[in-house]
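We give the chain.
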Amino acid sequence: MAILVDQRTRVLVQGATGRAGTFYTDQAVRYGSTYVAGVRPGRGGTKHLGIPVFHSVKEAVEETGATASLVVVPAPNAADAMIEAIEAGLETIVCVTERVPMHDMARVKRALEGTQSVLIGPNSQGILTPGQCKIGVMPTKDAKPGRIGIASRSASLTSEILANCSAADLGQSTTVGIGGDTIHGIGFVGCLERFKDDPETEAVVLIGEIGGREEEKAAEYLSSVTYGKPVIGLVAGRHAPQGRRMGHAGTLSVFGLETAEQKVAKLREAGVLVAKDASDVVSTVLKALK
């Protein structure tokens, strides 16, 4: 099985006719995902890559039955695009755009309140259920269907660990890139809840980083429930200097708070098996499953 997306997911692309939208739509369609519409104001009534283009998300949903969206829209307009998708009632919204202003994301978070929409991102590599559906920019070459759920803050580490898992015959149920920005949609807890309820996910890998509170929230959640499945964690940034941003906006460690060591300690207290580094993740998963 899978979480959030599967073979039934019908995807529309906001910004489909741009260079990035064209490239990633073509990749996903070639992979076998079901992409049913593009959205570009002023281009409605045309086709792009053989897919109909509509003026608005609402029109595209009404005409095609789309259930998910890929937002490939420049940062100044990305929040409006996400809110349009939320208002159209889409189940899953994936935003890969980087550098969306924080005050814009505050508007998006308010728009999500009281809805059934799940936002992944922004600044996310997307979501991949191997052999069924890809939304975003996540590579598919090394992905393999299986029973390991992955939730990650780091795109590069996701690719490395996913490839290592597949090489060890540890296929994935779903891989979710929660996004590297400080204000984002679904986090580790939302992923953990869904993987817990997925009967065919046997273990979960969390790929964390310094900065933010995703790892702390995951530890608090795991301490409050009987999870019933092994959770394997990795926290990158052990050697990063405090008070400096490493990579993207969400990795800022300030004034000694939320360092890698503190995150590791809290995860271990919650029962998470923490790997030493990326190369140690597969062996830790195998030990946990035994």
The radius of gyration is 18 Å.
